[in-house]
Fold:
Amino acid sequence: MEKASKRSAIKNVLDKLYNKYNHRDLIKPDPLQFVYQYDNPSDREIVALLSADLAYGRVEQIQKSLTNLFERMGESPYEFVRGFGKTERKKLNGFKHRFTTDQDISDLLILLKKVLSQHTNIEEFFIQGCNPGDRNIIPALSKFCKSLLDMYDAEHNEKASRGLKYLLVNPAQGSACKRLNLFLRWMVRNDDVDTGQWKSIDMARLIVPIDVHMGRLCKILGFHNRKGASLSTAIKITECFAEIEPADPVKYDFALSRIGIVENCNGQYRNACRQCELLPFCRQR
Structure:
């Protein structure tokens, strides 16, 4: 199949997946569900960052941990952050999600408190690192993470812990930054799934959040042939999506990831694969 024909065929499949899965009532068990439990945009921004940051590990454990965390933070996570002090830190005592501890979360919330004391919201702080000449969002995301970690170093006169660095992983180090790119997708894109709350960033600059599921499915589509989910792999995959949907390369992320999460695709052929939209492209059939 020649490139133009294959691209057209892939777009048709992706559009079908988008129409099938990209609906608000199908968000669960995605951690994005927690964002929509709040009506206030200020709460949603905080919840989105924390939910994306803890979106690693088993789906069930992610949901359990986020339920626990937001119960501790009360009715308004935004106000919890704005007033973060000894009382709020005590409320987080004992929280743990895999290797993220209550100390890691407290360190992050202290940084966000400082950001919100100087800026209207996180978006205003983030866009300070945006340059109109940047090809994508990666330089701005790097500056965002570096600025927060530098802020921690300056205030504590020591380097940030490994746990905090994991929550603010910097793409400048080669990481695909799946969780922070997921946060940006939720905030910037605007449809029935993503909030579209951040208006100052062009969604054409977003990078596809790459995890094991997306890496496997994008390999099936022929978007890459690499083993690891590095930053360069994420960029390559995004560029392939941009050939199909230039103004919105991350459009199909949620719908496509449902095949891995909801349909339990593991890359091995089974009877259920016969109903999969990606079967014509899959080498395992």
User: Anything to note?
Assistant: Residues 11 and 215 are 18 Å apart (CA to CA). The chain has a mean pLDDT of 91.
